[in-house]
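User: Hi! I'm working on a homework problem where we have to compare a predicted structure to a textbook description. Could you give me the structure for the chain below?
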Amino acid sequence: MELLNLLFPNLMQKLPEFYQAIIDTFVMVGISGGISFVLGIILGVTLIVTQPGGILERREVYQFIDKAINTFRSIPFIILLTLLLPVTRIVVGTGIGVKGAIIPLVFGIVPFFSRQVESALTEIGTGVIEAAQAMGLSPWEVIFKVYLRESIAPLVRATTLTTISLIGLTAMAGAVGAGGLGDFAIRYGHNRFQEDVTVGTVIVLVAIVCLIQFLGNRLAAKNTH
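Assistant: Happy to help. Predicted structure tokens:
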């Protein structure tokens, strides 16, 4: 404790706020990540099955989703935060804090994750899909029993990468008062020139990212066959 007080004097005086910032970050990642996981899987699968030559080919559906994803991916997240502020206020009643960050985070990460899911499912060769159809499997059975089941490992890796990116977005959202570690670092580390707060926040973020990457790698390895 004496060493920590020596190295991080300002941070140690704000431990309750620091702990709350960590909790807020996990809440934002958990809620927006859960929503984004479901939407990303749905959109990624839809892109694969409705693309030209897909098992449920629908060119108009594919083109619409593809263009929508490209549009949102092209918008810098900091601009997206401002752009969605009226929508966020209508849906959750506020544009700041943890609640105010959920919708922008979802809009910011779903397009990214959808592309990751699309890429993961693309690893399933067309020969496998054709063989499954030849065996009499319906399109829905092909989706669940072939595409999703056989892509668990790449989907885990995609989820890991997306979660790490989402943590980065929560830190960026702190620039507009979204709460969490990003807001904590900006409020004290940057605005009050307390460098030890910034360094301590970065250390915690790096530790969280390393832990997520480690768990993701282990889970992906267990599902690789």
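For your comparison, note the following. The chain has one domain: 2-222. The chain has a mean pLDDT of 89. Good luck with the assignment!
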